[in-house]
Design a protein that fits this description.
By secondary structure, this protein is an alpha+beta fold. The model has no long low-confidence stretch (mean pLDDT 93). The protein starts with a helix and ends in a 9-residue tail after the last strand. It has one domain. Helices cover 46% and strands 19% of the residues. It is globular. A hairpin with a 4-residue loop joins strand 1 and strand 2 (40-44). It has a 3-stranded antiparallel beta sheet with strand order 2-1-3, sandwiched between helices.
Length: 78
C-alpha cells in the first residue's frame, strides 16, 4: 500500500469516527477505541493493554486511529 493511500485511509477513519462519535459514546464511552477501515476493531479502558492486544492481533497501532471517547465534554484552553 502506498503512503498516500495509507494516509487517505487514515483520514477516512478520522472522519468516520468524528461522524459517528455520538452513536459510539453509549457503547464505548470512557474507553479507548481503535478504528481500522471505518469500524471499531477493539476497545479498552487501558491504552497500553489495547496497544498490546492490537499488536498481538497483527495490527500496526501506529497506522490506526486510536482515540479516547470521553462521556464528559473535554474543555481545551487555548
Amino acid at each position: 500500500m502506498s503512503k498516500v493511500s495509507s494516509l487517505q485511509e487514515f483520514n477516512e477513519d478520522i472522519d468516520w469516527l468524528q461522524k459517528h462519535r455520538g452513536k459510539l459514546i453509549p457503547k464505548y464511552g470512557d474507553r479507548w477505541v481503535a478504528v481500522w477501515k471505518e469500524k471499531i476493531v477493539d476497545h479498552e479502558e487501558d491504552l497500553d493493554a489495547l496497544i498490546r492486544r492490537l499488536m498481538n492481533k497483527g495490527y500496526e497501532p501506529e497506522h490506526m486511529v486510536i482515540e479516547y471517547l470521553s462521556r464528559e465534554p473535554i474543555e481545551a484552553i487555548l
